[in-house]
Amino acid sequence: MKELNIGLIGYKFMGKAHSHAYKDVSIFFDLPVRPVMKVLCGRAEGALKVAADRYGWAEYETDWRKVVKRGDIDIIDITTPPNAHKDIAIAAAKEGKIIFCEKPLAATSKDAYQMVEAVEKYGVKHAICFNYRKLPAIGLAKKLINEGKLGKIYHIRAVYLQDWILDPDFPLVWRLEKKVAGSGSHGDLNAHLIDIARYLVGEFEEVVGMGETFIKERPLLKETGTLETGLKDKQKAKEKGKVTVDDATLFLARFENGALGSFEATRFAAGRRNGQRFEINGSKGSIVFNLERLNELEFYSTEDTEYAQGFRTINVTEGCHPYAGNFWPAGHIIGYGESFINMVADLLVSIAKGKNPSPDFYDGLKCQEVLDAVSESIKRKRWVKIKKH
Ligand code: SOE
Hints:
The protein is of the alpha/beta class. Helices cover 32% and strands 27% of the residues. A hairpin with a 2-residue loop joins strand 13 and strand 14. Helix 4 (85-94) runs parallel beside helix 5, helix 5 runs antiparallel to helix 10 and helix 8 crosses helix 10 (361-380). The chain is globular, with a radius of gyration of 21 Å. The structure holds alpha-L-sorbopyranose. Alpha-L-sorbopyranose (SOE) binds at residues 13, 188, 274.
């Protein structure tokens, strides 16, 4: 069995999700290549060592440059904060590595474009982890739309609602710093909505947005926590620092195919822990998806007999459903983690077939172009056309 050696850069939330996928993908998929969890990379050696041991990595390393240069590593997987994506990806491309990168691709579309230039220059395969595309309900939405079951698409209205920083005393973590994250709820959450919209509706033409930072400064954080102890043990300093990103960003969009969209990302929707929801309306029907009920897809068809028309809830766990058959018998639902297993399975199968995986860095760049157009629109208080690189 051919093996592909993985070097994973980053061991926190997304590092854990990707580790879970590499470790368990072979339980559910009969793959042409097997992922080998070779080396886990991070900065804090204590927490990194615990993570490498618990997640099942053979080794750990605190210097990503050494990982990228290793001759025995085939895939470099980047799950660091966005400001580090570009340097790692360009260095990995130079070494001829396959690159798998978390979203958003970069902190800006300029950086994203340099990443695309690097993978083209060095001719390496590249993928971005828009994992929600790999949920069965999203796969079914794509199938229904592709088969014309919704007809001509008129609308998408999408929200991504979280509430983890509602407390003004929540400290100034990296996701709240522009120089690290690039943006706040916008690049973190609207990135997913933009990708889903590109996947299911089409390409964006122009946008107009608005944003807000509700809490302008927060307690500084001294990084003293470990993987085991988590945030609660990190010391909150008395001093406060300025929040330099958006807490919420909303925008309207017109698509190249004439459809209209409304999008909302916020981290201040009390009670919504990971509340991604969207509805798509077409000439022949509608679909509704709710991430907190991710095994279900609501579907309405104008072609149902008149007295039987209404939204039906499809339990997307049948073997005939996309991305569902490799897990459990019908009705034995799946969760958030399986979207990463499906993502990694697609990645490995594409590589084995000599094809570039999907979604890829071009998808990441197009998403970043929309993100940047919204940010420009907010600054200039006017509609902005998407600037394609
Ligand atoms: C934000 O908290 C976040 O972790 C995103 O960064 C992920 O992409 C999303 O899947 C879950 O929420």
